[in-house]
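Field reference: sequence -> structure
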Amino acid sequence: MRSFGGLVLLLVGVGLVLLAILNPRMDDFEEFAAKHLRAQAVDRLEDRLGTESALGQVLAGPGVDLASQYLDRFATRKNYVVASVYTVDLDGPKSDELEWRFLGAADRFFPLEGPQQKKKNGSNANPRP
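Structure field:
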């Protein structure tokens, strides 16, 4: 019974070390965010224009490329050793209307919150007087 507890502790320790090693860096997030931003822009253009994806990519390309070059100015990282939370805030600290949060763990990124989720949850709704 005693060796089982030691084995569990060893596995947990190895798992934590692996998560710490695979905790994505800011460079990794910037690469992910540029791809994510491009996909979002293409999807929105296709929705509005009803175009094929090739045209959407051509139209979205220059704006997304410019935005991704300056992404480091709008993105912040909170490092929790085994995972990190990345925030992209395009409208500044006084507003959270254009703000996205992602969890980075095990060399992957998971969306936590974005403008669409905030509107659905009603956090951007105007309170009644």
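Note: The CA atoms of residues 9 and 15 lie 10 Å apart.
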